[in-house]
Amino acid sequence: MxxxxxxxxxxxxxxxxxxxxxxxxxxxxxxxxxxxxWDVEGQEGRSFTFSADQDDSEGLEWGTFDGSENREDLFEFxxxxxxxxxxxxEFTVDRSGVxxxxxxxxxxxxxxxxxxxxxxxxxxxxxx
Length: 128
Known about the structure:
mainly beta
């Protein structure tokens, strides 16, 4: 019985060594470059401008951004904040104290088209 702790330690060490030698399956997480002005498909004069401090040209798996909704037809601009991670993206627009949250997903790297859903509408954003 005096050797029991040593045997347990040896078995645990062997299990850890075996598990670390097995190949792991990496899950591909799509990357996004968000900093740009995105037009709302089918709505002339309406766009969203996003800016992320950490953006780079290759894209990132996660990040935060701010920006504005631009309504040229109404001469209105509304501030927004958002984030993305693991292929999910969300942002909230503050329209004079009324907040609207938009959510969407993306599955490919550096998409140039994003679909968002809110409680009141579905919008498709495209980079011109």
